[in-house]
Amino acid sequence: MKAVRRLFHFAASTTLGTPRSKKIITRIHHRQQLLSLLKQAIGNQTHDKRTTLLRSLLILDIDRFRQVNFSLGYMSGDLILVELANRLRAIHGCDLVVQSGDDEFVLLIYANTHDQLSQTIQSIQHVFVTSFIVMDQECFITASMGVSAVDISLATIEQALHQADQALLAAKRSGKNKLVTYNSSHVQRFSNQVQMETELRMAILENQLILYYQPRLELSTGNIICLEALVRWNHPKHGLIAPNEFIPLAEESGLILSLGEWVLREACLQKARWLEAGILNYQIAVNISPCQFQDESFSDKAIQIIEQTGIDPAFLEFEITESSIMQNMDITVAVLDKLCNKGISISIDDFGIGYSSLNYLKQFPIHCLKIDRSFVKNIHSNKDDRAITNAIIHLGHALEVQVVAEGVEEWSQLEILKETTCTTIQGYLLSPPVSAFDIEQTFHRNNNRPVMIS
Length: 454
Fold this sequence. Notes:
Elements: E1 8-9, H1 27-47, E2 54-62, H2 65-72, H3 74-89, E3 94-101, E4 104-111, H4 114-126, E5 132-134, E6 137-139, E7 143-147, H5 157-173, E8 179-181, H6 193-205, E9 209-218, E10 223-235, E11 239-241, H7 247-253, H8 256-277, E12 283-288, H9 290-294, H10 298-309, E13 316-321, H11 329-341, E14 345-351, E15 368-371, H12 373-377, H13 383-399, E16 402-405, H14 411-419, E17 424-425, E18 434-435, H15 436-445
Parallel strand pairs: 7-8, 10-12, 12-13, 13-14, 14-15, 15-16, 16-17
Antiparallel strand pairs: 1-3, 2-4, 2-7, 3-4, 5-6, 9-10, 9-17, 9-18, 10-11
Helix pairs in contact: 2-3, 8-10
């Protein structure tokens, strides 16, 4: 459990106007108080002779709650927390609701059958479907959730807490806004986050990081036109570690700035090596994290790295998430214009899942829209996802920008995308992310011609 500033048990009478609690709880007292509350609740159930109940522990963490506080103010954030607590307390089967952090809740849930337990969990997830209205501002929030697998008793409370923590971490690392039930694969490679952060810092300094590349295919020609650079951690003990296991920690700790600079520099150097060898004459796409983009010196650092490595900026595309560019419109326009004036292309990643106005599309110098994979995943079976995908494609055509469908994994998805006149695809159907060596081998097997798909 992460260190927190406050913990209190919400009573059913809590109102929307309840102010921020001023009670300060230390890290040790927080854990002990939580254990005490859990023991008391389980003891009360046992005293009531409800010994046959199934019990689980669920921990939820609100996604990007810092942005809610930043955008709406801490008072509004507190009111949302109180309303959320009230909604959770109203769910049948929630025996205990504890706010264990600024944006984290611990729930002791119970039922007589596994089906009832599943229904209670679904009710908890459904809480986030309805918007929160605070000071006339409508706000939607999502949450990552971890559920313990062990049936909780007085003897297994510590084990259940550990399992729920591990499952929550797995949910956050795999994209957030989801629920994960603990299994043995969620056991951490590192004993704690401090160790992981220390080793990640060393990994950046000691070149333990490597880049993999995932191709992007132009449907009209069947040619690869771009390679997206994706970082991996080649740990000397644990082997290859996927980005979803360490990128969240890098963002939280601030290491994402130095890690992002390493990725950009290595992508530029690799492109320079390919140019010197006369192969793989494709554009390279580099992901820019929200923390990077919001750093006031980001554009200057990026341009300096490009100039130091000596490559033409036209070979680069920066993939920036939709939420990143909406923080400060004036600054965003200035930064994007500065990058574009140097010849760098701009792509909006995960397009379609944000709540921002489409007005920015005519203000920002955008070259590409990448349709979020959540729409492409069910495009062959869900008419709403198909309609949204088709609308984004037509929007891209009207704006004369490239449109990329991410996460294409099945031929049925590809056939539908062809019907919708999508210009470009990316996904495991074409190729998973592969090493620079494998990309080169594929190129040579095709007799130095562009890699194509039939």
